Structure formats: structure tokens, C-alpha cells
Amino acid sequence: MDREHSGLRSAAVLALCGLFAVLAVGLALLSSGVYRTAAGASNENDTRRTALSYLINQVRRADRTGGVAVETFGGGDALALTETVEGTDYVTILYCLDGQLMELYAEAGSGLGPADGLAVLALEDLSVETDGAIITFTVTAPDGTVSTASVSPRCGYEEVGEL
Fold this sequence. Notes:
This protein is an alpha+beta fold. The chain is built from one helix and nine strands; from the N terminus they run H-E-E-E-E-E-E-E-E-E. The radius of gyration is 28 Å and the shape is rod-shaped.
């Protein structure tokens, strides 16, 4: 009789260990799916926040009379930031092209086009709108989500039109 109980106990312990292992693996698989979803959403949120932060900080960096201009470049909205270095004017143009936020830094009037810029980060679309003293940036991330931020340069801005 003792052997029967011993075998039954062993089988119960083995079944309990097996159930524990199955539940542990299931929990690990479920957790990894949740983590992947959260990490993906966080990554897309970081892309939008990084793009908006970058644009706003570039405006703040160039915030001087004649330093900030809103224009059209390569068929889309763009931000032009002008600075003078040793008597020569240089312009930084921020725009969106082929799913990338682009930056083109060149001497003013150099004749460089949109394809000559460098990709900063993945971004489907950039919209730059003005209202009074406020510049509003609207960015569309690769997943289609849209975010907006506004900045008001102390020295104002210019609307140039087509560059």
C-alpha cells in the first residue's frame, strides 16, 4: 500500500511540475508579446517627439532677426535657418523627402536641391504652418500617427515662399 501512495505522490508531483512549466512558458510568451507591442509604440512615440524637439531646438538656436524663415522646398513645407559665419551667409533647410526628415546645410544661394540633404530620421511628412508669431510643426511618423508642437521665436520669422 505504501508503494501505491508513493507512486501516486510521485505522479502528482510530476503533474504539478509539468503544469508549472507549461504555465511559466505561456506567461513568458504572453509577456514577450506585450513587451514587443509596448516597445514598438514607444519607438514610434520617440520618433515623433525627437523630430518635434529637433525642429523646435533648431528654431531656438537660430532665433535672431532674419534667422528663421518658413518656405517651400522640394514641393513641401520647409524651415530655413540662416546664420552668418565670417561674413558669409549659410542656410540650414529642414524638410521632409522620401519618408525622411532631411537637413541641408549650405552657403546661401548655392543652388543645391532637396536630394542633396542628409537624412536625420524617418518621418513620413512635415507640415510647417504659421499663425501670427507662432510656428506650428505637424509631423507624421512612419506608422501614420500625427503629432504637433508650436514655437514662437522671439525675433519673429519670415515667410519666403518657394526656395
